[in-house]
Amino acid sequence: MNIAERYIQGLKKAYIDNGAEEQWIHFERIIHGADKESIKKLQMVFPDVPDSLKQLLEFVDGTYWREYKGEKVAFFFLGSDIEEYAYYLLSSEEMIDKEDMSWLENYVNREYDDMVQMDEKIIDDAGKMNWLHFSDCMNNGGTSQLFIDFSPSDKGVKGQILRFLHDPDEIEVIADSFDEYLQMLIDSDYDFINEDIEE
């Protein structure tokens, strides 16, 4: 069993253990994964997209107000290093479209050094940024977003996972790879899924 399969299996158990079995069953009943063409397009834009992310997308092609069988789905699927804080998985199309990241340029170029905490593993030239935005947090991404960084500084690692957090603003490396990121969530016992979980 690969890391993505173990992650999904553990996530299902977390939903069941927290009294949300019906929610998971309904989710699994209506969703579908990204097709081969969508995965191919994603890989054309991001040649180094991790296999484990592709495998998650093959299970479900996004959980962020994604329409399946005529129903809009907003389903907590990921977490971060912020305890008990849930995130959605963006769809392959949303990842390919790459929302305008110009708002990040001033952060990356260290123009707010006095106000914003930036990890030294992150490049300081926005013109060379190559980030894959794969997740938004539970309040529609306004507070936190997650990225795979394919353009790290010489102190970082290609493929490292970045977490943007708003107020106070900071961008931190939270894992050296997507596999390591998934393992972190497994090791935390999916603490973003709890008895108060809402669909």
Task: Give structural notes.
The structure is a single chain. Helix content is 32%, strand content 20%. Strand 7 (160-165) and strand 8 (170-175) form a beta hairpin. It has a 6-stranded mixed beta sheet with strand order 3-5-6-7-8-4. It has a two-stranded antiparallel sheet with strand order 1-2. The chain contains 7 helices and 8 strands. With 199 residues, it is of the alpha+beta class.
Distance from N terminus to C terminus (CA atoms, Å) equals 28 Å
Gyration radius, in Å: 16 Å
| Derived structural class | alpha+beta
Largest sheet: 6 strands, mixed
Quaternary:
single chain
Low-confidence segments, given as residue ranges, are none
Gross morphology: globular
Order of secondary-structure elements: HHHHEEEHHEEEEEH
Helix content: 25-40%
Beta-strand portion reads 15-25%
- With strands numbered from the N-terminus, the spatial order across the biggest sheet is 3-5-6-7-8-4
Count of helices? 7
Nearest-integer average pLDDT: 93
